[in-house]
């Protein structure tokens, strides 16, 4: 039982670490975001795009290599699904780019504000300076 309980304790410590929890949250949010963008591409972007291109439904676009028979299923290259996946990837990439760009601008602004505050504050004295001033003051009192 000692090995099992130490394994469980080690696993508990591993799970409780902040970066593991952050990663798990990121995966869950990423999966949900993926579903949203897939719906955006399939249900919002592709229908008007298909209409503009003459009523094409990209998801049904394919090259049939062997037609279906009563005994076998159709064998086809479904390149329309690839087009949907590429557009989905581009939408996700754009959203991530905009998010990271915004976060970088916020960080730059915060850093500039911190630097401005530091520039306004008087410089801190080193420990040596403080000690030397105390010695000076003690010597003045003894005179």
Q: Can you characterise this structure?
A:
By secondary structure, this protein is mainly alpha-helical. It has one domain (2-142): Non-ribosomal Peptide Synthetase Peptidyl Carrier Protein, Chain A. It is built from four helices and two strands, in the order ααββαα. Strands 1-2 form a two-stranded antiparallel ribbon. The termini are far apart. The model has no long low-confidence stretch (mean pLDDT 85).
What brief labels describe this structure?
143 residues; mainly alpha; Non-ribosomal Peptide Synthetase Peptidyl Carrier Protein, Chain A; two-stranded antiparallel ribbon; 2 strands; 76% helix; elongated
Strand-pairing-aware structural class: mainly alpha
Strand content: under 5%
For this structure, what is the CATH homologous superfamily? Large-conductance mechanosensitive channel, MscL, domain 1
Which CATH class? Mainly Alpha
Number of helices, counting only DSSP H or I runs of 4 residues or more? 4
Helix content: over 70%
- Gap between N and C termini: 75 Å
Shape estimate: elongated
In angstroms, what is the radius of gyration? 32 Å
CATH architecture: Orthogonal Bundle
Q: Order of strands across the biggest sheet?
A: 1-2
Number of strands: 2
Which fold name corresponds to the CATH topology? Non-ribosomal Peptide Synthetase Peptidyl Carrier Protein, Chain A
């Amino acid at each position: 039982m000692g090995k099992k309980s130490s394994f469980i304790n080690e696993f508990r410590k591993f799970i409780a670490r902040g970066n593991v929890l952050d990663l798990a949250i990121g995966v869950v949010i990423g999966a949900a975001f993926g579903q949203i963008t897939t719906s955006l591409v399939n249900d919002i972007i592709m229908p008007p795009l298909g209409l503009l291109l003459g009523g094409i439904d990209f998801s049904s676009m394919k090259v049939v290599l062997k037609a279906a028979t009563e005994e076998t299923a159709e064998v086809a290259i479904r390149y329309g699904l690839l087009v949907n996946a590429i557009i989905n990837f581009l939408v996700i990439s754009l959203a991530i780019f905009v998010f990271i760009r915004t976060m970088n601008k916020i960080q730059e602004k915060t850093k500039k504000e911190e630097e401005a505050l530091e520039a306004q504050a008087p410089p801190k004295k080193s420990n040596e300076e403080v000690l030397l001033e105390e010695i000076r003051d003690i010597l003045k009192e003894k005179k």
